[in-house]
Amino acid sequence: MYNLEMINTIKNYPDWVKEYRKEKLKNFNEASIPSWKRINIGEITLPEYRDYYKSFIKPTKKQEGVYIEETIKGLNDFNNFNKLNNLNNLNKYLSVEESYGVSDKFVAFGEALFNSGFLIKIDRKTKAEEIIKMKYTLDEANPLVIDHNIIVGEEDSEVTVVIDYSSDDGGNSQVFHNGITKVFAKDGAKINIIKIQRLNNKAINLDSNITFIGRDAQVNWVLIDIGGEINVVNYISNLEGVESQSNLKSIYLGDGESKQDLSYTMNHKGMRSLSKIEARGALKDNAKKVFRGNLDFKKGSRRSKGDEAEYVLLLDKNVRSHSIPVLFSHEDDVEGNHAASAGQIDANQLFYLMSRGLKEKEAKKLIVEASFSHILDDIPDLELREVVDAEIHRRLVYV
Amino acid sequence: MEKKKTYVEDIDRGIYDVKNEVRYSYKSEKGLTAKIVEEISKTKNEPQWMTDFRLKSLEIYNKKPIPTWGADLSELDIENIVTYIKPDTEMKHSWEDVPEDIKKTFDLLGIPQAERASLAGVGAQYDSEVVYHNMREDLAKQGVIYTDMETAIKDYEEIVKDYFMKLVPPNDHKFAALHGAVWSGGSFVYVPEGVNVDIPLQSYFRLNAPGAGQFEHTLIIVEKGANLHFIEGCSAPKHSVINLHAGCVELFVKEDARLRYSTIENWSRNMYNLNTKRAVVDRNGIIEWVSGSFGSRVSMLYPMSILRGEGAKSEFTGITFASKGQYLDTGTKVVHAAPYTTSSVNSKSISKGGGHAFYRGLLRVAPNAHNCKSTVSCESLMLDNESRSDTLPIIELNNDNIDIGHEAKIGRISDEAIFYLMSRGISEEEAKAMIVRGFVEPISKELPLEYAVEMNNLIKLELEGAIG
């Protein structure tokens, strides 16, 4: 059982934050743990509460109109933070009304007990010059990250954020990540988020995300999920404004005994909104995954267009690959497409590469990387791109 | 600017809405009790095992919850649905002997003409009982059995006992259990090894009494190397009370056999159509489903193919047309349970006037079923923005050596296509009509004989509204 006294920083909070956490903790206690029966996770053992002590925001040059702060510090010194950052209504971003995320239980868990996370706010007509980088490293001393992240892009602003979750201790410790990220793109804003999850083989990764996109605004996601034993992620994009846009590109790699439940939803509400989901995956060993892609054209989303596609390479006999690509439509003047394909690596391709002297694993690796490469190219940080390449290589060839 | 919308009239169902006075020799009480089930069994003079089977099914029925994942079934009150109505006539082999009003109805529906024209045999069911059954003589000589289920239980008890509700057991779901308890009528077809039935057999089901349920059971066994085309048609006149259709179709396709099962359902708009259809296919056998869903208020219909023999194959071609007040939840399920099996699904749906078309599909590949191939394609056309169209396919792959492709589209008639046709001198209405006809063409060409004509008529009626 959890209580708020476990959180060391709790005493410094203003009362409304304490109340907020208390209420969320109540929600958490009341909700039941989901079983995600399609991938048969069973009951997740909840971790012991720990504070997260490491710093995770990579320093950037100060820029007018670009505010970055740890969520905990921002809340501790709330009034001052508000004044500094022109964020006079932070509380409205802390909870959203609609239900979202991997499950009510784990969203409440994150909201009640967050031990890290960041607030980013970009002022009107401001373009963040530098890429903002977050790096959470989990290890034996810091095995728990519960991050509560809020990104607010005011009208016509632009920002790119890279979030990297890794475990750097040779993969021996039981680490747990439960994250919440809320993104608010006001009219004309453009927000790019690159999220990389390369935790160790014992890790549990639960990640809930919700996005609100205004008129002419866009939110683009690049999601790389290549680690973790249990990986459950959920992304909901609300395309609310006229001509709002969202692109989501995802790479997943399942190996060993890993189980993944990946859910991506595009809710088209505004006229002429545009969305695209592209997921590319590879599964080996005994990996299990379920892909859920939802395109929902709500009333009023006339002339909107949504595409979703999933391509998965099945590398071993014992893999389990489930896909549920859903289209809902309340409007006639929309265009929704989905495509899914699944299969083995083409034998001719493999033969060709092996006839050039490559070992089978190397050849397979090349083909998987070729399928992934155009998404990996969207990682804006070269160093990180190399790290991800190396990790994919390692998992495909050596493990 | 408000765009001009095509207005498509509702189908004038014409002859389908002809009601007859309800005359019956036996009618069960409303609702469902063990006593009623026993009485149905007794009236039918059934063997004890069937009576026991019915009672066991009733027990399961009472325990199972009403499914909530699909259509809203809260208005369906089984207490008020008369489960068994026996029309006031014995089964006839000569059309002339069938009572005048029933004959007239089937005449209007084109049943005997169809027989004269091109069908190998015809069965017709009115309310719960089969009233007419006939088959070409040469087929009977080759050992083909085509009769109603009641006769089959008496004359071919051993065969029926081996197959009856083995594929759709009563504990499958609540309405399968209900069917097991109160089933009545339906067809039994047995095609012996190597026999090629070159012209289709046909059954027609009609529900005339208000507030009644139709629970026909169709059991078809196509032995090794045999070949059959079976056609099923359904309709009911419109009454103001809710009717229920919870039929069950079990198809056994043996080695190297081939079965084509075609259906056009045109139930009236007060019908809850909760039908269960399933086929199991052995080595190198082929099942082909052709399915058109036009009528009913609520449909939940997912014909399922279980490919259990190596090299077995299934093809599903379906069209659903959901109009005002209709919720049609249709689709198909395919289970690849053996290696080298192949399947293809081609589904089209149209929704208009606030109708809701929902495609729900399942494709499952078992761990041992390597070298499978499957393609699934779903297309939905919405004719106005009051309507709804949803697609929910589930794909479960449990081994790596497979080749799966899936695609789905939702949309309206594109302005470019209309503009193109209009620039060629075709009026806007006609252009739209042409596009809708083109949309359904791949399905209508799969339909047999007079059913293709029937469907073409239904669609033409819809489109005439559009052309005005």
Helix content of chain A: 10-25%
Could you spell the SSE succession of chain A in H and E letters? HEHHHHEEEEEEEEEEEEEEEEEHHH
Percent of sequence in beta strands of chain B = 35-45%
What level of helicity do the residues of chain B show?
25-40%
Number of helices of chain A: 8
Instruction: Report the uncertain regions of chain A.
Output: none
- Structurally, the number of domains of chain B stands at 2
- Poorly predicted regions of chain B are 1-11
Structural class by sheet pairing and helices of chain A: alpha/beta
The total of beta strands of chain B comes to 25
Question: In angstroms, what is the radius of gyration of chain A?
Answer: 21 Å
Overview of the structural elements:
The complex is a heterodimer of chains A (399) and B (468). Chain A is α/β, with parallel strands linked by helices. Chain A has one domain (4-345). Chain A is 22% helix and 38% strand. Chain A is built from eight helices and 18 strands. In chain A, helix 1 runs antiparallel to helix 5 (104-113), helix 6 packs across helix 7 (360-376) and helix 7 (360-376) packs antiparallel against helix 8. The mean pLDDT of chain A is 90. Chain B has 468 residues and is α/β, with parallel strands linked by helices. Chain B has two domains: 14-301, no CATH class; 414-468, no CATH class. Chain B has eleven helices and 25 strands. Chain B has helices at 34-43, 48-63, 100-109, 111-118, 137-141, 149-155, 157-163, 174-182, 415-423, 428-444, 449-467, and strands at residues 24-27, 85-87, 121-126, 129-135, 145-148, 187-191, 201-206, 213-214, 217-222, 227-235, 243-245, 248-253, 258-266, 271-281, 286-293, 298-301, 304-307, 313-322, 327-330, 333-336, 342-351, 356-365, 372-382, 388-397, 402-411. In chain B, the strands form three sheets. Chain B has a ten-stranded mixed β-sheet. A six-stranded parallel beta barrel of chain B has the order 14-16-19-22-20-17. The radius of gyration of chain B is 22 Å and the shape is globular. Mean pLDDT of chain B is 82; it is low at 1-11.
